[in-house]
Specification:
It is built from 21 helices and nine strands. The chain is α/β, with parallel strands linked by helices. It folds into two domains: 52-191, Orthogonal Bundle (Tetracycline Repressor, domain 2), CATH 1.10.357.10; 203-477, Rossmann fold, CATH 3.40.50.1820. Strands 1, 2, 3, 4, 5, 6, 7, 8 and 9 form a nine-stranded mixed sheet that branches. The longest helix is centred in the first third of the chain and has 25 residues, at 53-77. It is globular.
């Protein structure tokens, strides 16, 4: 053991040893005594960190899961200038390099699943969550890339990926695993009309006055001479443009869509630690997006805090906002929710900094997403996507939105407004009545039996409602 290894905390030394031995020899073949000997820790220290071998196996798989998603995100980021088709191709390139590496011993999740077929084994939950998350990320990219059947393309690509993992373990670097990228490209080409360089969701960069860059997905499938009022879709707190993926196919048939990521979210630059978000800064950054794309006027779609941003802009710059579609949008964050979100800490921001964005999201998810209607896959996807936002960024964003109360502005907003919410949302449902009553041109559409998150739970229905709302609003304007 090197000096650097000795200086690592005992827990990390145990995980490192287990990771090496489990992956090389298989989980069942490696005993606790061998891990103790390899890591150089006392038996008591091992059991203090991991009460059982099952707990150690689970922790190892969670560590491998985190490593996998770092690699995946790097592969996506390497194609940030391309459309989602290019990002799918970048992921396949990464898989091909991995599965044909000389030291490849197979997918740790598939290997461990073979060793522990029992459905109630704790490792199975990690394995299933990982494989479901892979399929959902593939499906989301496929949907944004306008695949004719995103679910089918995601399943086909996952089958190719896991097949490459298995054949790479059997036949090594000289086997067919290295061809998974070319095979995947052929599947993608059949599923997505048109080459990857035409149309699709581009991600141009908008350089801001402070030197930071903001990314904005652009979904444009119209003829150049078609010029309907475009749509800007603003994500909610600590989320990103991917949260609108399921809306895009329906709306992009007749409208250009612009989906910016706030600073620190999605693919936008992360500001320095200590950066203070304000409503004024966020508003100026969104106006920079409109100006960069020569958008004089847009239909605004906002979810939760994204709706609050829309209300602020409609009040300050009514000439830029043709209409507002607000999903699950409160007038302010209620005191009850602030107390719940703080998780026993002094504030919500303190809770996020303490637990991390993903864990904080997991513990409070039921207040932002109706868990009775959200599938386990959707729940894990939301947590994983929000966990991409750094805790200091999420905390600072929440401090910003906690300070905003749009109620005094409502009577002066003359823009047509469609309010979409579940009637059981603890954050927004009661406040929808305030919005509908005080907005001069507000109309409320409640989703009976649903809690928070109708934009994710009923995306196609929401998109259809928005399209009909815009059609009517434009007829009245004419």
């Amino acid at each position: 053991m090197t000096e650097a290894e000795r200086k690592k905390p005992a827990r990390q030394r145990i995980l490192d040893a287990a990771s090496e031995m489990f992956y090389r020899d298989g989980v069942r073949a490696v005993g606790i005594d061998a891990i103790i000997a390899r890591s150089g820790v006392a038996k008591m220290s091992l059991y203090r960190n991991f009460p059982s071998k099952d707990a150690l196996v689970t922790a190892w798989l969670e560590d491998r899961n985190a490593f996998f998603w770092r690699r995946w995100n790097e592969a996506e980021a390497s194609r940030a200038g391309n459309d989602p088709r290019g990002q799918l191709e970048g992921i396949l390139d990464m898989i091909a390099a991995t599965a044909s590496h000389p030291k490849w011993r197979g997918c740790p999740f598939l290997n461990t699943g073979t060793e522990f077929p029992e459905p109630d084994h704790p490792a199975r939950a990690v394995i299933l969550a990982h494989k479901r998350a892979v399929r959902e990320r593939l499906r989301a990219l496929a949907a944004t890339a306008r695949a004719r059947d995103p679910d089918l393309l995601a399943e086909q690509l996952q089958l190719l990926i896991d097949g490459a993992y298995s054949i790479g373990q059997s036949l090594g670097p000289d086997g067919p695993a290295k061809t998974v990228a070319s095979a995947g490209r052929a599947v993608i080409a059949k599923a997505i009309a048109g080459p990857s360089t035409n149309g699709g969701a581009l991600m141009p960069t908008i350089r801001l006055a402070d030197g930071l860059s903001l990314h904005c997905a652009v979904d444009d499938y119209l003829w150049p001479w078609e010029a309907p009022t475009p749509v800007l879709m603003m994500h909610g707190f600590a989320r990103n443009a991917n949260f609108w993926n399921r809306w895009v196919p329906a709306i992009a048939e007749s409208r250009r869509i612009y989906r910016p990521d706030l600073l620190g979210c999605g693919k936008s630059d992360v500001p320095a630690t200590g950066y203070a978000y304000t409503a004024e800064k966020i508003g100026a950054q969104i106006l920079a997006v409109l100006d960069r794309h020569s958008l004089s006027r847009v239909h605004w779609v906002g979810e939760s805090s994204g709706g609050i941003i829309g209300l602020l802009l409609a009040a300050a710059h009514p000439e830029r906002i043709a209409s507002l579609v607000l999903c699950n949008t409160p007038t302010r964050i209620p005191d009850e929710i602030r107390g719940i979100y703080s998780l026993g800490q002094q504030s919500t921001a303190a809770a996020i900094r303490t637990h991390g964005t993903g864990e904080w999201c997991r513990q409070t998810l039921g207040y932002r997403l109706d868990l009775d209607h959200a599938s386990p896959d959707l729940q894990e996807w939301v947590i994983a996507e929000m966990d991409r936002t750094r805790p200091d960024v999420a905390a600072a964003l929440h401090e910003c939105f906690e300070a905003i109360d749009v109620r005094p502005l409502l009577p002066g907003i003359k823009t047509p407004v469609l309010l979409l919410s579940g009637d059981k949302s603890r954050i927004a449902s009661e406040q929808q009545k305030i919005l509908a009553d005080r907005l001069p041109h507000g109309r409320l559409e409640l989703f009976a039996g649903y809690g928070h998150g109708v934009n994710l739970l009923q995306p196609e229905r929401c998109a259809r409602a928005a399209l009909e709302f815009w059609r009517t609003a434009e007829e009245v304007r004419q």
